[in-house]
Amino acid sequence: MTSGFRKSIVFACLLVATAGFYLAWEHYQRVYASAPPKGIVGQVACQLRLRDVRTSHFSADDQPFLTSCLMGGYITKSDFDDAGLSP
């Protein structure tokens, strides 16, 4: 009986650890993975995403990325105006 109890404790600990890693990964994806890269790579990434939005439809994941680009100074409001994204 103690062997079964120990196994259930180990299983519960593994389950809690797995849930913690999953939540940490989700937080990383939501906060850091959607941010544009820094420096010249960030500027090029933002310009390419803006060009893609001009030629295709605006998707939900484009908005936070382009907002970060705008706040980071990689693109300007006139770039939004040129793309037809300004209200």
Helical run tally: 4
Largest sheet: none
Provide the β-strand percentage band: under 5%
H and E order: HHHH
Judged by helices, strands and strand pairing, the structural class is mainly alpha
Please identify the oligomeric state: single chain
Percentage of residues assigned to helices:
over 70%
Overall mean pLDDT stands at 83
Report the C-alpha radius of gyration, rounded: 21 Å
Form type? rod-shaped
How many separate structural domains?
Answer: 2
Quick overview of this protein structure:
With 87 residues, the chain is mainly α.
Describe the structure.
With 87 residues, this protein is mainly α. It folds into two domains: 1-33; 35-87, no CATH class. It is built from four helices and no strands.
List the helices and strands and how they pair.
Elements: H1 2-33, H2 39-55, H3 62-72, H4 77-83
Helix pairs in contact: 2-3
Task: Supply database-style keywords.
87 residues; mainly alpha; 4 helices
